[in-house]
Amino acid sequence: MAISTSHLFVLLSFAVVMSAPSALATNYTVGDDAGWSINVNYTVWAQGKMFNVGDMLIFNYPPGDHNVFKVNGSDFKSCTVPKDQNALATGSDVIVLAKPGRKWYICGKEGHCGQGQKLVIDVMDMGPANSPLPGGTPPPPPSAATKAVVSGQFGFVALVVAVLGMMMI
């Protein structure tokens, strides 16, 4: 059974629309040109940036000079290196922000965290219509009118595919 040109167009349009959310992810090079190092104010660096689920943090530094540990809030505050995990130490470490909430990172090299080589960020979860929901806060219950419409990205995709399909007929 051959696929008609109109059906192929609809399928390709669907594929493009479905891949769009991944294009919204942002790669953040921690510290920008200064990289992951001492003598950088990472609080100032993070100000004004909106970190979302799916974004990536890239920690660049000369291998051997630094490392990266994901820690909890109390270990961040006290600059305590966790004993139950290995450091990221490639010099180009990538962390995908997979869940919403507060995230803490430190350098585990002696004295570096105490000199400010630590980063705390809040990761947002993108809710309906791409409105940020802090810490993954659930959206309010949908109204009766909203319930009648298919919600979320799949509803939008279905609408786009339906309109494109009608245009091709």
What does this structure look like?
This is Mavicyanin-like. The chain crosses the membrane at residues 148-168. One of its GO terms (biological process) is response to symbiotic fungus. By secondary structure, the chain is α/β, with parallel strands linked by helices. The protein has a domain at 25-142: Sandwich (Immunoglobulin-like). Helices cover 30% and strands 21% of the residues. It is built from 5 helices and 8 strands, in the order αβαβββαββββαα. The strands form 2 sheets. Strands 2, 4, 6, 7 and 8 form a 5-stranded mixed sheet that branches. Strand 7 (118-126) and strand 8 (132-134) form a beta hairpin. Helix 1 (5-23) packs antiparallel against helix 5. The protein is globular and about 60 Å long. Residues 8-22 and 135-169 have low confidence and may be disordered.
The number of helices is: 5
Tell me the name of the CATH class of the domain at 25-142. Answer: Mainly Beta
The CATH H-level superfamily of the domain at 25-142 is Cupredoxins -  blue copper proteins
Radius of gyration (Å): 22 Å
Please count the beta strands (DSSP E, at least 2 residues each): 8
Secondary-structure element order, as H and E?
HEHEEEHEEEEHH
Signal peptide: 1-25
Subcellular location: Membrane
Membrane topology: Single-pass type I membrane protein
Transmembrane segments: 148-168
